[in-house]
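Hi everyone,

Forwarding the result from last night's run.
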Amino acid sequence: MIILDYKDKRPIFEQVTEKLKRLICKGVIAPEEKLPSVRNMAVELSINPNTISRAYQQLEGEGYIYSVKGKGSFVAAEEEIMRLKCSEYKHALGAIISDGKAQGFSAQDIINLINETVKEVYND
């Protein structure tokens, strides 16, 4: 499920957070699905439970998961996951558009490039 890269300079909790987020966004871990306990995930990955706890807290803070006292952590509802994905995508797209604007592209130039790229990607 999760493979850690010990050559990656990012802290392990960030890798765990990112990989869980990716699995959630791709639907590998379904909305409302119960996540492994902190202890079980830590044993599975051979890392400290505090690292998993920190990753779960980060994901909960971002809205990807929620906790139920005495029951564990669960993936957020499908609508919430879609809202979060759209928000992150919009943020990333905004950065690309801002960069294009800074390079002198007009709004129409950027729209044309986006349309052209969408056609290329979806026709492949």
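The CA atoms of residues 86 and 92 lie 10 Å apart.

Cheers,
N.
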